[in-house]
Amino acid sequence: MAPTLSQKYLSTRGAEYGLSFEDVVLQGLAKDGGLFIPEEIPSLPASWETEWADLSFEELAFRLQSNFISESEIPSDDLRDIINRSYATFHHPQRTPLVDLDGKNNLHLLELFHGQTRAFKDVALAYLGNLFEYFLVRKNEGKTGKDRLHLTVVGATSGDTGSAAISGLRGKKDCSVFILFPEGRTSPIQRLQMITVCDANVHNLAVQGTFDNCQDTVKALFADPKMNAEHHLAAVNSINWARILAQITYYFYAYFQLKKSPGYNKEKLRIVVPSGNFGDILAGWFAKQMGLPADKLVIATNENDILDRFFRNDGHYTKKALGAPADAEDVKETHSPAMDILVSSNFERLLWFLAYQTNNGSTAEERRGHACENVSSWLNDLKSKGGFQVPSAVLEAAKAEFESERVSNDETISTIRETFSSCFPTNSGESSPKSSKTGGYVLDPHTAVGIAASRRSIQRNPGVHHISLSTAHPAKFADAVDLALGGKEGYSFSEILPEDFIGLEKRETRVTDVPAGTTWEGIRDLVIAEVDQELQGQR
Ligand SMILES: *Cc1c(COP(=O)(O)O)cnc(C)c1O
């Protein structure tokens, strides 16, 4: 069968279209700097709500993804197998269980941290690792030596992406993975989760600097002709479309669980998402466009609030707050480091669709062209002038789907505290982070940003069901959790520590220290040398 429009992809900036799923997964970023999106958002079969209600997480993922991946590209049995293997490693039979955090207020928590590295990023990166492997095996069938395609995955991380990417890619043939992390700025557990993986294809680079320095190096490598000529670079951050796609599943899965929960009263539904790069909540927006009956998606930001400011400042998307002095600090360090960003890359994908839906070209093709032009000029202004403003029709379209809340550092800590003393969910499993003595629930700081935002939304919309996404296990962020709960009766950190975190510090480690002052070219040469060495080791 020929691919449908939703199984073909274009760049938000217009230079590429008609691409296959495999092209966009392996390429990551479009050549014009844009992000890949499906040419159309699919609609689901009319009976999905009844027919799909009892599907397993994996089967639901398969039904949803089939809309975006042509069978001629990945046959159904293969796609099922990729999905099944990706989630077999999860620590919970439901993969992403929904917990009644505060039944009286219809507040539900979607636990997304039951994957290998205990962060929601596992949902996408376990799957992406298996996709890379699938495409490589197929491309390299019958080939030997230099004819084989070898991928070099490079990613920068403040902690969660790195460990989840390493976990998803370790031991995969024809694929090396390099993770740059800022030495001393990840949490100790996150660092150990990365450097205790000693597979030959995993390369940890500890950089003296900040996360932004790491990210700048990765961008420079992707833009470098020498690197591209000699190595096929691949991306694991959320610009990769496969990550967004994998995350759509749990929005539907959560909805089905909600409908089965005893407290469900058919009231409306709002979904609250702690956001940084806008990848997670964008998957929610796709789910909503496909027919998920959510009334609003609520963006929860920390003090790095570009998304919140967009909604509060009439559609101005600016790196710095309007009126801020030119030398204002860039990224703030907060208790929720995975959300410490200056700009949210995936917002570009949303803007494209909103521009497409609101512009007045006479044909779909014309509207598509206009949307690409709009997005290109906005993103150029972001680069050259530090920001842009969208037309009011685009802002209104965004407001019809989204609300936003900004949560301060202090509020993050007080939310962890209040939740511990007031929330005793009864339907949570053994692997939920609760105190065994009191049953008080322990939030990680990112999840706490979402819960603080949920509390405000509930005040304005009493009775409405809220599903708040839990993006990490609290044991990954011991400092913030201890700051909130240290000394509290009934709290002990060791009680919430997952088994697989115990004894990590005693394991063998493998990491390359990048000396202070190393240029990006220096890092490039190091990457090339390590790949060569790895490949020689195989021959
Ligand atoms: C990555 C991450 C986020 C932010 O997700 P985005 O898709 O970048 O918006 C939130 N919480 C945790 C724990 C994360 O690791």
Q: Can you give a write-up of this model?
A:
Its EC number is 4.2.3.1. Catalyzes the gamma-elimination of phosphate from L-phosphohomoserine and the beta-addition of water to produce L-threonine. It comes from Penicillium angulare. Strand 5, helix 6 (160-169) and strand 6 form a beta-alpha-beta unit. The longest helix is centred in the C-terminal third of the chain and has 22 residues, at 364-385. The chain has helices at 21-27, 48-51, 57-65, 76-87, 121-139, 160-169, 188-195, 211-223, 225-230, 241-260, 279-290, 306-312, 347-358, 364-385, 392-401, 409-422, 445-460, 478-485, 493-496, 520-538, and strands at residues 9-11, 36-38, 98-102, 107-111, 151-156, 175-182, 202-207, 232-234, 269-274, 296-301, 316-318, 387-389, 402-406, 465-470, 512-514. It has 539 residues and is an alpha/beta fold. The protein is 43% helix and 13% strand. The protein has a six-stranded mixed sheet with strand order 3-4-14-9-10-13, with helices on both faces. A five-stranded parallel sheet has the order 8-5-6-7-15, with helices on both faces. The site of pyridoxal-5'-phosphate (PLP) has 16 residues, from helix 11. Residues 119, 121, 160, 238, 274-280, 338-339, 446, 471-472 line the site of pyridoxal-5'-phosphate (PLP).
